[in-house]
């Protein structure tokens, strides 16, 4: 009888441990999987100072906005509260679901959208304002992608790490809260090109 009880307890413990491991795997996989990619975009929450610096760079701007690697949605939600139609792309489904809940809780769910997607598989061509929380390894490739896709009137705002080739038009903040803003029309020389093709008025 004692052996039977020990056997039953052993099965219960084994089942409990196994169930716990399965649950941990289900929860942890979306967080760990991005780190296994060649270029990962880890989740590091934006600080209050970073959010305010991003909003400062969006002053006098309008149009659609996208946050690449939107995490828990705080940048998208803050932008929506300022009147932007804001979208976030995030690879981690748990963070996307949480972002949607936060947007609903804060009453801006009608002006926000969150998508579970790999940023390299998304076209950002129809956005006028782009916010990026990147890592150094991805910035050169992302710089090229955005330059190919975005229109001349787009503004790209980089947080924590600047782009390697572009020269920022505006910079604010210090340390990890530094934010760089790039107006694509200057990076491409669109203003110069438009002047060159404008016909001279006849005297």
UniProtKB/TrEMBL annotation:
One of its GO terms (biological process) is methylation. The chain crosses the membrane at residues 12-33. SUPFAM superfamilies: S-adenosyl-L-methionine-dependent methyltransferases. It is found in: Mitochondrion membrane. One of its GO terms (cellular component) is mitochondrial membrane. Keywords: Membrane, Methyltransferase, Mitochondrion, S-adenosyl-L-methionine, Transferase, Transmembrane, Transmembrane helix. Gene3D superfamilies: Vaccinia Virus protein VP39. One of its GO terms (molecular function) is protein-lysine N-methyltransferase activity. The keyword Transmembrane helix applies. The keyword Transferase applies. InterPro entries: FAM173A/B (IPR026170), SAM-dependent_MTases_sf (IPR029063). It is a single-pass membrane protein. Belongs to the ANT/ATPSC lysine N-methyltransferase family. This is ATP synthase subunit C lysine N-methyltransferase. It comes from Columbina picui (Picui ground-dove).
